[in-house]
Amino acid sequence: MNLDFDDSKRMHYGVTKQERVKMLQRFIKRVDGKLALCKNVPLNRFSIKCKDDVGPAPVIGWITNVLKRRVSELALDISSCWDWPMSTAIDGCNTMVQEFWESCSVSSTSLKRLTYLKANFDSLVEARLDLQMTHDQIHKAKFSADDPIQHEGLVGNATVFFIAICNVRSLYLSYNTLEPLPVFNNLIQLTVKTDRLVGWESLTALLKNSPNLETLVFEGLLHRYDMKCQSSDECLCKPWEEENIPTCLSLSPVKVLKIMKFGDIDEDEDMDKMMDQVEYFLETMPNLEQLIIHYEISIDEDVEEVLSQFQMVPREGLTECRIQVISDNLVLSSI
């Protein structure tokens, strides 16, 4: 069963405060009455739209009611100036899979999807985003990778949300979060989780849009290899024509580069690609002062060999870069 209540069409313009209060009371009674009447009926969706401020107490009561009935979809479109203590009630629900929220704060460990219609995060300093696609979206995205017409609009676009958080100073992104992003003028630290099935073309755009970035952290150096890897400015790989260095690297302001999970590979070929990638960073990033490698290995000789190979990379005309390789048993540094 679905329950939908929409009072948003009647904005109640031109009525007195007393009349508005009576209208809201009637709306609240209507919702309460319907919930009581259908208390023994399984509930799939519960939707409330109300542009007038009904206050937190009725809404919290409604949500508590439907959560106890194991509702799977909760849609709230409520204008309010109140702080909403909702986290405890929602965290107690293991079945809710969708929630739509406006003008309220929400915290939930069981929530799988959140639609935030209005976002204002001007004071936000740090953001950690791990946006996931459904299995169907992942399949469609892979299937249409070479068909831009079919690919357009297949998966959700979070551009508006990213614009709202563009003032952050520290940003963590999972591989599924890499999509067209706005300019992050205040961003000084960026962490990117990588995956062998996801390309880096969006990452190059993000680096260009981070003019004051100081620290870049990679969780792994994996990505999907295709023809774009040999094209300047579409990937971070070394292009066929060496003079065509991606501008996101040649003009990079980054001073500290950290590579986590270095050596976390499936094949020897992957290790060669990782080595080549780090060497290319050293060759092209002009302001790099420190390279920190967290090597997933316990063999000391391999750690020493990696440091030695990176030390031989020429940096003529670039800043001096201190290289550090850290393993489970050893910490080596070039200086």
UniProtKB/TrEMBL annotation:
PANTHER family cross-referenced by the UniProt entry: RNI-LIKE SUPERFAMILY PROTEIN
Q: What SUPFAM superfamilies does the record tag this protein with? A: RNI-like (SSF52047)
What is this protein called in UniProt?
Answer: FBD domain-containing protein
State the species of origin: Arabidopsis thaliana (Mouse-ear cress)
* Residue stretches making up the FBD domain: 247-326
Show the InterPro entries listed in the entry: FBD, FBL60-like
